[in-house]
Amino acid sequence: MSATAEPVLHGLAAGEAGRPDSPDWTIPQNWAAYTPQEHATWATLYQRQMALLPGRACEAFVDGMRRLPIEPDRIPDFERLSEVLMRHTGWQVVAVPGLVPDDVFFEHLAHRRFPAGQFIRRADQLDYLQEPDVFHDVFGHVPMLMHPVMADFIQAYGHGGLRAQRLGALDMLARVYWYTVEFGLVRESGALRIYGAGIVSSASESRFCLESPSPHRLGFDLARVMRTRYRIDDFQQTYFVLDHLDDLLRLAEIDFAPLYEQVSRLDTLSADAVLPQDTVITRGDGRYHRQRALE
Ligand code: HBI
Ligand code: FE
Q1: Does the Cβ of 172 fall within 6 Å of ligand 1?
Q2: Is the pLDDT of residue 147 over 80?
Q3: Can you tell me the mean pLDDT for 225-237?
C-alpha cells in the first residue's frame, strides 16, 4: 500500500532525521547497487502478482505493463522507465527514500514526476509494509501512468493537493486519491476490474476486493467519497467503482473548492457506511473486518 500514513512525516523540520540533502527529496536510484537478494524479492513479488492479474486487472494496467521495461527478474531502472513514459504521456519516475511530505509529493506530481520508493521491502515482509517501496510504486502505479487519462488525473491531483492544502481540505482530497488511484475498481466487459495501485501490488487484496463477500462495492460518487474514511492498516471495507476510467477526466476538470464547502458541512462517514442514496453493486456482509476486530 502507499500507506497514506502521513502523520509520521508531518511537521518534520529541515535537518531532522531522514531528510535528504535535496529540497525535492529525490535521491539517485543507484540501480547497480541493488543486491541479487533484492532483485530476487522483486522476482517473487512480480511472479505472484502476474499470476493473479489476468481477469482481475483492468485493460489499461495490463497494456501499460506490456509496453514498459518492467521485467520479471530485476528491479526496473527508473531511467529506462522514464524514457518510455516520457514518449507516451510525458511522465518521469524519480527516486525518493519513502514517504515524502505532502507538499513535496504534490509538487512532483504537478510536474509529471512520479516519486517512487528507491528501496525494496525485506524478503520476510513480502505482504506488509508501511512505506511505499519500489514494488508498490513501480509495479502498482507506473503502468497506469501510460494511460493518458490517468496520467492527467494524477497531475491534476498534484495541483489539487497544493490548492487543498491552502483551503484546509486535504483530508477530503486525499480520500479521492485513496479510493481511485490507490484502491479503485472499474467496470469492464460486464465485470469489475482493478485499477488501484494499492490493490494490484497486493496479492491478498487483489483477490479480496473482487471475490470476498465482505466489503461493499459502491458506484463512485465524488462528494460521497470525499466524506468517507479509509483503512490504512488492512483491506478496505468499501471499494468505489467507476463506470469507465475516462470518468477520471471529468473529475480532473471539476472545481473542488465549492464541493469542499458543501462536504465540510456534512458528517464524515465511516469506512463501512452504506447510505440510502448509494448505488450498491454488492452490499458486503462485513465478516472479514468483524472477525479481525475480535482477534
Ligand atoms: N509520498 N512517496 C510518497 N508516496 C505517496 O503516495 C505519498 C507521499 N507523501 C504524501 C502522500 N502520499 C499522501 O499523504 C498524499 O497523497 C495526501
Ligand atoms: Fe501508492
Answers
A1: no
A2: yes
A3: 96
